[in-house]
Amino acid sequence: MKNTILTIAVFTLMIGTIATSNGQTVDKKAEKARENILEGQKDVIKAKLDLKAAQKDSVAEYQKFKKESEAKIKNNEKRIADLKLKVAKLDMKSKAEYEKELTSFKQKNANLKKRLSDYNVKEKSKWTSFRIEFDKDMGELGKALKDFTIKNK
Fold this sequence. Notes:
3 helices, about 150 residues, rod-shaped
């Protein structure tokens, strides 16, 4: 009987030790999981703040680009009007050809103005490609206007 009681006592002690040590392991794992969740939340918050800052920068960059482009478009409109005055002084044969070309320039300028006003800032990659293409088209129009003046002189 003493052996049975001793065996039960040792067995109970072993189970208690195992349960206690297992509980500590679970607590450590739970604590680590909580820390990981908090780190993940911090990363998510940081990512959201970075995204908002990037969007704000992108919008500010677009606003600056839009103002500069609008100034260029107004400058083109002025150049076209000046060229129309010069063309008006030419003889009839050359006048029709030049007026047709100036009308084409005016239409291209109007299209650029419309593209600029219709553009909606969405993604950084789309904004970059829009800006590059728009600058290219604006440059081509400016060069054509400059070349047109050289032809007239």
